[in-house]
């Protein structure tokens, strides 16, 4: 009788352990997902600010029209130059 009681307790502990592992995994996913969302939000804000600055557009509709008009051309001709210096790092002469 004592062995059955011990077996039942072991099974209950194992069941709780499985539940806790699942909860831990879900919480970790939520934390990591939050970080990814923050990074994406920051990137979108920065990209939008650059787009607004150089194309002087202040509405979503304007931005979408510009993106549609220039999108394919930019994708085809996208060249990354090794010697290009970002404007914020350029020296004023």
Automatic annotation (TrEMBL):
Domain of life (superkingdom): Bacteria
Coiled-coil region list: 3-30
Keyword terms: Coiled coil
Keyword Coiled coil set for record: yes
Protein name: DUF3847 domain-containing protein
Lineage, top ranks: Bacteria, Bacillati, Bacillota, Bacilli, Bacillales
């Amino acid at each position: 009788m004592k062995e059955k009681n011990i077996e039942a307790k072991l099974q209950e502990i194992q069941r709780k352990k499985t539940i806790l592992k699942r909860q831990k995994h879900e919480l970790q996913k939520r934390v990591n997902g939050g970080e990814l969302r923050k990074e994406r939000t920051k990137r979108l804000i920065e990209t939008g600010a650059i787009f607004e600055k150089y194309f002087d557009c202040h509405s979503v509709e304007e931005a979408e029209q510009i993106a549609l008009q220039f999108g394919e051309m930019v994708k085809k001709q996208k060249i990354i130059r090794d010697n290009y210096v970002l404007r914020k790092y350029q020296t004023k002469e």
